[in-house]
Design brief:
Blueprint lengths: L18 H10 L8 H14 L3 E5 L2 H12 L6 E5 L8 H5 L3 E5 L10 H13 L6 E5 L8 H10 L4 E4 L7 E2 L2 E2 L6 E5 L12 E5 L2 H11 L22 H11 L2 H18 L6 E3 L13 E5 L1 H4 L4 H10 L5 E2 L15 E2 L6 H8 E4 L7 H19 L1
Parallel strand pairs: 2-3, 2-4, 3-13, 4-5, 5-8
Antiparallel strand pairs: 1-9, 6-7, 8-9, 10-11, 11-14, 12-14
Helix pairs in contact: 1-8, 2-8
The protein binds pyridoxal-5'-phosphate.
The site of pyridoxal-5'-phosphate (PLP) has 14 residues, from helix 3.
């Protein structure tokens, strides 16, 4: 029995109205081709906003991770460490390069990469004489990982960090913008992210030369010649000038979008204040989370009989889109043979997956819509609470 109430999406695109002027300029100047003035301007604007020296606009966040790993020199047979609690796109580029992922658990306090699990993974890797080529660290649901400790460990072994900031554009870590702490940072402008180009991504780094090399690869690796000449393998990974126009209009309202998502988060917290065993993803003191998605946790002691999938299904019946927390990559059939380092005896990522739900968090969601979501959740929880 499906409701005929209006659908509430998890994280739909939210246009500012400013996009059209940039797209219109592109039409009027006939810059419909890939590349062009919007692409260059969008790269400069993102670089300036996050405080990176170089930026490359590409067709997706996944493409940006692929380029970052190739820049580091990851190749067939190499090992790459990667956060386990994330979307599959964090790890797929490891496979593109013929390398092998090793997954690292989350810590309970930030839900991001556990430094103690990372340290154990490195100790084992050193013992077997096969250190990773890179570490992909994900900033989950809009919150930065805790980089001081992660970086100390990676620096000790001289292994560079690729910061997967697809979900955390605009967040901070100790005063720095998320995505600028690793050797390379990547953002996604997929339709569900905090700002969107309908599809797209960005690679950033202070290593301007590396960014130029990625630009070359991303443009089919065309050598400097009037004829088409190629000495290296390339990709068709550049962002189109039209989509970069959308991105420029979106970037101008990013701060508003962050404020809106944080307010939505606050409303959820307030609504469930008096509910025992309901908690939310913590925000660490080291920085600002964008609260890209509000993630709620059901204490199994209290709500043991209620699975996240069941809550998701009950919301779906009211035409509300929610999702369980990411299924950890070490539990995915695709990676069934991969090594995994849990935080401790507890597999934190698995726990979060088994008890966590992401709630509708789009910045365009009205207060009224949000109350509909809240009422529906309360209805589902009633048998457990009272
Ligand atoms: C969305 C996302 C990506 C991939 O970005 P695309 O632009 O969709 O390729 C990578 N990592 C994380 C953590 C994401 O959420």
């Amino acid at each position: 029995m499906n409701s005929n109430e209006r659908r509430i999406y998890l994280s739909p695109p939210h246009l500012s109205g400013l996009e059209e002027q940039y797209v219109k300029q592109a039409f009027e100047s006939n810059w419909i081709a890939p590349l062009g003035p919007n692409v260059e301007a969008f790269e400069k604007e993102v670089a300036a906003y996050v405080g990176a020296k170089g930026a490359l606009a590409v067709s997706s966040g996944t493409a940006a991770i692929h380029l970052a790993l190739r820049l580091i020199g990851v190749s067939a047979g190499d090992i790459v460490f990667c956060s386990t609690l994330t979307f599959v796109a964090s790890a797929n580029p490891i496979l593109y390069l013929g390398a092998k992922p090793v997954f690292i658990d989350s810590e309970p306090s930030s839900w991001n990469m556990s430094p103690q699990a990372l340290a154990r993974a490195f100790e084992d890797a050193e013992r077997t004489g096969k250190l990773p080529k890179a570490v992909v660290v994900v900033n989950l649901y809009g919150q930065s990982a805790d980089y001081d400790e992660i970086k100390r460990i990676c620096d000790h072994y001289q292994v560079p960090i690729v910061e997967d900031a697809a979900e955390s554009l605009g967040a901070t870590y100790k005063g720095k913008k998320s995505g600028t702490i690793g050797k390379f940072g990547i953002y996604s402008f997929n339709g569900n992210k905090i700002i969107t180009t309908s599809g797209g991504g960005m690679l950033v780094s202070d290593d301007v030369e590396a960014i130029e090399k990625a630009r070359f690869w991303a443009t089919q690796a065309r050598d400097k010649a009037v004829h088409y000449q190629h000495s290296e393998m390339g990709y068709n990974y550049r962002m189109s000038n039209l989509l970069a126009g959308v991105g420029r209009g979106q970037l101008r309202v990013l701060e508003d979008r962050i404020a809106a998502r944080r307010q939505i988060f606050e409303r959820y917290v307030q609504a469930f204040e008096d509910y025992p065993g309901i908690t939310f993803m913590p925000e660490r003191e080291y920085g600002l989370s964008t609260r890209w998605l509000t993630a709620m946790l059901l204490d199994p002691e209290r709500y043991g009989g209620l699975k996240p999938a069941e809550l998701v299904e009950r919301l779906e019946r009211r035409n509300i889109e929610a999702r369980p927390v990411w299924k950890p990559l070490h539990l995915q059939p695709l990676f069934k043979d991969a090594l995994y380092y849990p935080h401790s005896e507890t597999d934190v990522a698995r726990f979060l997956f088994e008890h966590g739900v992401c709630l509708p968090s789009g910045s365009s969601m009205t207060e009224e819509d949000q109350f509909r979501v809240i009422e529906c959740i309360k209805e589902v929880l009633r048998p457990y609470v009272f």
